[in-house]
Amino acid sequence: MKRNLLAALGLVSAMAASPLIAKEITHEAGTTDVPDAVERIVVLEFSYIDALASVGVSPVGIADDNKRDRIIPQYTDVIGDEWVSVGTRKTPSLEIIASLQPDLIIADKNRHSAAYDTLSEIAPTIVLDSLGGDYHASVAQMAVIGEAIGKADEMNARIAAHKATMADYAAQIKPKAKGMSAQFGVTNAKGLWLHAPVSYNGSLLEMFGFDSNMTAGEGGVYEKVYVPTTLEQLSEVNPDLLLLGAYATPSHVDSWEGQALYDGLSAVKNGNVHNVTAHNWSRLRGMLAAEMTAADLLEIVNK
Fold first, then answer.
1. What are the structural domains, with CATH classification, of the chain?
2. Torsion angle of the four alpha carbons 205, 270, 229, 206, in this order, in degrees rounded to the nearest 10
3. Which of 30, 43, 158, 191 is deepest in the core (most CB within 10 A)?
4. CA dihedral sign of residues 133, 234, 272, 192
């Protein structure tokens, strides 16, 4: 039925034109046979752009949320700017994806599992957990992507260099983080969402030696990893260092200034509330993104 639907929409499967299948890739949705020489890649999450840029590979299509400036210069300096937008990460356009005749699609477990069969009719598709995984899982996914795109050796070398870079940052940050609790969250005009210890940023802060006073929520990814938080709940977490990525100015957190609960936070009283770039810290997730986060954090603890 889905194949008939794709045909009715005039979508051309790239699989028929794919080179000889040479390798089997294991991923979150099972296993997929991927061409040995992958040339036309569509990525549906930002962390997968990070992976491609890490080894100098340019995708033909990106789910850029219809906002090309979300693909930061650190990526476009490597991959260029000739990709085609395939729409939002949540609901990418199947028609546009198919029109690009990809020979590999990289999708996200949380956003795209329901569309996996349909995506697989367009081209070989691998599914990874970009949205719900922690930092360590993100790095492990880079190796899977490297194998899938035929750049395993280059990716493994980049991962090794990345781990050395992060170890150097950790050696500088850990002495200042000892005995200090830290919390990252994003805020817009309507609310605050704290990233739990099991999140990408939560696990990064732990790796750099910070404690966490927060417990993960229950339920799905958004309830467990990205937790909506009231001022009263934030006061219970009460971090020594509060890192905020604001998607709006003024933000919801700004409205708390002057309230006793907010002004009584350890981070507020000690001048340890710091604004960071929400997009880089929260949306990107990957090796280049982690290195930018580490550089920001080192600058913050050295202030």
1. 2-150 (3.40.50.1980), 176-301 (3.40.50.1980)
2. 10
3. 43
4. positive
